[in-house]
Amino acid sequence: MTGMLPIIELLEDCETDAKRAQWLLQVPSFVFYRSQMDIRRVLRAAGFLKGVELLEMEFTLLVATRGADGQPPAEVVTNLNAMRAFMRTLVRKGGLV
Q1: Which domain of life is it from (predicted)?
Q2: The domain containing residue 78 runs over which residues?
Q3: Reported pTM
Q4: Residue pair 61/80 in contact by the 8 Å Cβ criterion
Q5: How many domains are contained in the chain?
Q6: 1 domain-assigned
Q7: Cys bridge to 8: 4, 15, 64, 82, which one at CB 3.0-4.6 A?
């Protein structure tokens, strides 16, 4: 038993960056908040630095102060959407793009 959530152990079991990217795209947002250090450690150990970038962007969105309209900062959303698109492409192509 590693002390990690079982869902993080699934990330640890991923053998390719494409599989890690798929995991990052599908995991519930709360897991990013709850287990960011474990996720970061797993991604760094795998050498998946783009995954670390996505983790940081997802976490930034979770803790961002909302504007008067209730929306998160547009720049945060735009950057996150671009990184998610990159990850979807990585998944579709099965590896580095």
Answers
A1: Bacteria
A2: 6-93
A3: 0.91
A4: yes
A5: 1
A6: no
A7: 4
